[in-house]
Amino acid sequence: MKFGLSTLKIAVIQMDVVLGELDVNLKKMERLVREAAQSKPDVIVLPETWNTGYFPKNLAELALSSGKEATKKMGELAKDLQIYLVGGSISEVYKEQVVNTAKVFNRYGLEIASYQKIHLFSPGEENKFYTEGNKVVTFNIEGHLCGVIICYDLRFPELIRRLALDGMEILFVPAEWPHPRLEHWRILQKARAIENQIYVIGCNGVGIGNGVKFCGHSSVISPWGEIMREAEEKEGIFQTELETDAISEIRKKIPVFLDRRYSKYQLY
């Protein structure tokens, strides 16, 4: 068992999710995860709502029938392949409410984090189909504190700053980010990385759902704001390595957390 790694190998799966087709998506997810695992990454990342798509009109019915199965399968894959699986997010039912939940599993197949999307995209009526979450979540991967948010959450810098103040070094962002806002996707990831001096791993979907075209371009952004890897607009897998020592080096060079004067401009 590896522990305290200074280099983490990440595999990002950019998936074309088929709206409302639970079995198709489950089989595709497993195939892509197994393919990604062949190069022995430490972490594999999936996009938002990969089980149902974003989001069918009969969402409640599909979330009820598929949430538990999707969770079970992700845990089995993580254990079988000996990987950390940042399982994007799934539509599921929690306490009789439909929620958009990001789940993370360790190498033993145990669920180590569960985050319910806080900011629901009201222009797309996401708030009419899902119930919002109410807590932030961090988790540990090989000695490194990580956080996860979902898609629209990326537009709310105070959420990511809260995670960074808790010590987060790596932020995972599963998404179904659409055209024509590709440049927003790129710029917001860079901004969150630079202002918090963290790695940002954005895992987006591709294809079309409910007439919305998702823009792909999953990416890995360094704590210096540089694009380390960026996918094109098609289904596939890419891999990269994170040099985690870079985080402390950058924070020493530009000590924004030491120089903060939040008492003069507290928001809450």
UniProtKB/TrEMBL annotation:
The keyword Kinase does not apply. GO terms for molecular function: hydrolase activity. InterPro entries: C-N_Hydrolase, C-N_Hydrolase_sf, UPF0012_CS. It comes from Candidatus Desulfosporosinus infrequens. Keywords: Hydrolase. This is Carbon-nitrogen hydrolase family protein. Residues 8-244 form the CN hydrolase domain. Pfam families: CN_hydrolase. Belongs to the carbon-nitrogen hydrolase superfamily. NIT1/NIT2 family. CDD domains: nitrilase_5 (cd07583). The keyword Phosphoprotein does not apply.
